[in-house]
Amino acid sequence: MEILFNNFKRQYAALEKEIDAAVKETLLSGNFILGEKVKKFEMEFAEYLGAKYCVGVASGTDAIILSLLALGVGAGDEVITTDMTAYPTVAAIMRAGADPVLVDIGEEDGLIDCGRIEEKITPRTKAIIPVHLYGQAADMEAIKKIAAKHNLKIIEDCAQATGATFGKNKVGTIGDCGAFSFYPTKNLGAYGDGGAVVTDDRSIYEKLLSLRNYGRINGNVNGLGAARVFSSLEGYNHQSSGLNSRLDELQAAILSAKLPYLGKWNARRREIARYYQKNLKTVARLKENDYGQAVYHLFVVKCSRRDELAEYLKKNSVGTLIHYSLPMNKQEALNGRQAGKFTVSEKFSKEILSLPLYPEMTDEEVEHVIKMINNF
Length: 376
Description:
This protein is α/β, with parallel strands linked by helices. Helices cover 38% and strands 13% of the residues. Strands 1-9-8-5-4-2-3 form a seven-stranded mixed β-sheet, with helices on both faces. Helix 2 runs antiparallel to helix 9, helix 4 runs parallel beside helix 5 (87-95) and helix 4 crosses helix 7.
């Protein structure tokens, strides 16, 4: 039995008719950039999350960059985030012109340690980016209190947590902006890159529409109508530098076809996670906090003999990955700029291992993973 870490073919096989129909309809429409498919998905995704506005963009990284720009964060500013995240979180901060300031994590859950945030705040601090890592919400109540006290903006990095909740609210709807990724591995994945920003603030929404489309004042031009606008003076009026960061029509159509299944897929992820938690005996599991519902983008365990375990599983045809083998303070791109100690994240990064978990996994495959780990 070979168990891949991800198996995208199974999901496509289950939705082949819906996906093919959505793609064909888009191709026949002749509209490929900012057309009706993007508008439709933006409305559906905002409704699913309980947000007022959604802006489709080219990637999850761009979703963070554009959120920072829309909130007026840039050169000379500092943005606080976690030391344990995917590099794009930090790359986006730097691309916006700001300086990332890292905070260590909690040992039990891998999430940003809220008790250490305030010590990193300076007069230059303008925003906090909590990362809902592995599909579990960070402690948004604590983060909102800190942000309110110091007049800081909050951008939620929801790349791994589409559908997760904090209290009664879905992540992404709690801060000023929520940044989402639709990279194929995500709980709601496209067949290529894609992302979105959600917000309840009309002024931020309008800035995002412009910023994603070269900073054009008329930033939400759709489909073939763009040709008519480009021929007018208004079509060439740019209020800022902006980016070329637009969710394309094909990806939007695919995401709309998938979105109705997201709740079922997340429920299956939780079911598999519960089974792992109950039956894994020889590795440590991360804590699931009781303030919300996790959606298990990844199922991560800790083992002091992590590399040996990963090699053993590979020999027994079980795919694994490490998220992440280097905390952000160790990334060469930051050039050692981060002051302070990151003892928890550095130890954490040496012990963690991500196990296969996706909705199409069979019970037999889950049992096999558990058996191999317990045998080790």
